[in-house]
Amino acid sequence: MQTLAIIKPDAIASGKAGLILAHLQEAGFTMNAARLVRLTLPQAEAFYGVHKGRPFFAELVAFMTSGPCMPLALSRKDAVPHLRTVIGATDPSEAAAGTIRKLYAESKGRNAIHASDSDENAAREIAFFFPEGELAALGS
Ligand code: IDP
Ligand code: MG
């Protein structure tokens, strides 16, 4: 089972990507694909389309286009729910001790990492960043 994580621009800019990757691997995730990309505004709006109309949407897409981010296709048993547990609550002040957001996030908006919230969205989000051929080339 696979899920999509994105190490967000705040964590790339503050040099935490390596620590977050190590955290994910220690949590049992295998990397199937990784990229370092700077999203355009239309790409960020499309990726977060489900949040269009929410009060934080403009802030979210501005943040996600502010610098490079690192999408990762990750696999392990129960990948989607397990990754949600490992990253912690959206707002780091509410995140459990030892979670990635508790350790590395700055705020509810600048919160270090994205994780898919369902198997259906994981499939959509992985396809968004990793065209079928790239994943197939990695044998996943
Ligand atoms: P999630 O990332 O924990 O799944 P969502 O509710 O899906 O949280 O929101 C997507 C992203 O939008 C969050 O990770 C965060 O970056 C941003 N966001 C959500 N709520 C707020 C808010 O109230 N203020 C600012 N940014 C927010
Ligand atoms: Mg979400």
Would you write up a description of this structure?
The protein has helices spanning 9-13, 17-26, 41-47, 57-64, 79-87, 100-104, 119-129, 132-137, and strands at residues 2-7, 30-34, 70-75, 113-115. With 140 residues, it is an alpha+beta fold. The chain has a single domain (2-136), classed as Alpha-Beta Plaits (2-Layer Sandwich). The longest helix has 11 residues, at 119-129. The mean pLDDT is 95. It binds inosine-5'-diphosphate and magnesium ion. Inosine-5'-diphosphate binds at residues 51, 56, 59-60, 90, 108-109, 111, 114, 117.
Largest sheet: 4 strands, antiparallel
Our count of domains comes out at 1
Query: Average pLDDT, to the nearest integer?
Result: 95
**Helical content, roughly?**
40-55%
Taken from the alpha-carbon principal axes, the silhouette is globular
State the end-to-end CA separation. Answer: 10 Å
Hetero groups in this structure are:
inosine-5'-diphosphate, magnesium ion
CATH homologous superfamily annotation: Nucleoside diphosphate kinase-like domain
In the CATH classification, which architecture applies?
Answer: 2-Layer Sandwich
Strand content: 5-15%
Topology pattern, helix = H, strand = E = EHHEHHEHHEHH
Query: Structural class of the helix and strand makeup?
Result: alpha+beta
Number of strands: 4
Look up the CATH topology. Alpha-Beta Plaits
